[in-house]
TrEMBL record:
<feature type="binding site">
    <location>
        <position position="109"/>
    </location>
    <ligand>
        <name>Zn(2+)</name>
    </ligand>
</feature>
<dbReference type="InterPro" id="IPR023091">
    <property type="entry name" value="MetalPrtase_cat_dom_sf_prd"/>
</dbReference>
<keyword id="KW-0690">Ribosome biogenesis</keyword>
<keyword id="KW-0698">rRNA processing</keyword>
<dbReference type="GO" id="GO:0005737">
    <property type="term" value="C:cytoplasm"/>
</dbReference>
<dbReference type="Pfam" id="PF02130">
    <property type="entry name" value="YbeY"/>
</dbReference>
<dbReference type="GO" id="GO:0004222">
    <property type="term" value="F:metalloendopeptidase activity"/>
</dbReference>
<keyword id="KW-0963">Cytoplasm</keyword>
<dbReference type="GO" id="GO:0006364">
    <property type="term" value="P:rRNA processing"/>
</dbReference>
<comment type="function">
    <text>Single strand-specific metallo-endoribonuclease involved in late-stage 70S ribosome quality control and in maturation of the 3' terminus of the 16S rRNA.</text>
</comment>
<keyword id="KW-0479">Metal-binding</keyword>
<keyword id="KW-0540">Nuclease</keyword>
<dbReference type="GO" id="GO:0004521">
    <property type="term" value="F:RNA endonuclease activity"/>
</dbReference>
<keyword id="KW-0378">Hydrolase</keyword>
<keyword id="KW-0862">Zinc</keyword>
<dbReference type="InterPro" id="IPR002036">
    <property type="entry name" value="YbeY"/>
</dbReference>
<comment type="similarity">
    <text>Belongs to the endoribonuclease YbeY family.</text>
</comment>
Length: 139
């Protein structure tokens, strides 16, 4: 089950379409869907989590806590809307496209993809692109 929670003024307009797409992404990776909670917040909220739980004193766009058990993926994914907006501007893309990238990025981590090495990051970007394209096909 995919849930959307809000700790900021931001509200996701197309929750049902996004949840359907993310479920399809999970299925396309031969995983089963557990409980996934997206928490939309601001920089201050996410920075506090980054410092308190990960000991990282930096801003970030996403932090995920993975509760995957076997083939059933699940967890909490915190998304800073401020970072997503800044990243969209930095990468010259729309806010909607960057948000989809961040949302699917968390799910792909749960599916086992990493992004610490250059090789892993290249595969992650390729998978993000592949899964974002699925959204356009389904809608």
């Amino acid at each position: 089950m995919i849930n959307f929670n809000y700790e900021s003024d931001f509200i996701l307009e197309n929750e049902e379409a996004i949840a359907t797409w993310l479920s399809a992404v999970i299925e396309s990776e031969n995983k089963s869907e557990g409980e996934i909670n997206y928490i939309f917040c601001d920089d201050e909220y996410l920075h506090k989590i980054n410092v308190e739980y990960l000991n990282h004193d930096t801003l970030t766009d996403i932090i995920s806590f993975d509760y995957t058990m076997g083939n059933e993926i699940g967890g909490d994914i915190f998304v800073s809307i401020e970072r997503v907006l800044d990243n969209a501007n930095d990468y010259n893309t729309s806010f909607e496209e960057e948000l989809k990238r961040v949302l699917v990025h968390g799910v792909l981590h749960y599916c086992g993809y990493k992004d610490k090495s250059d090789e892993d990051e290249a595969l992650m970007r390729s998978k993000e692109d592949e899964k974002i394209a699925m959204f356009h096909v389904e809608q």
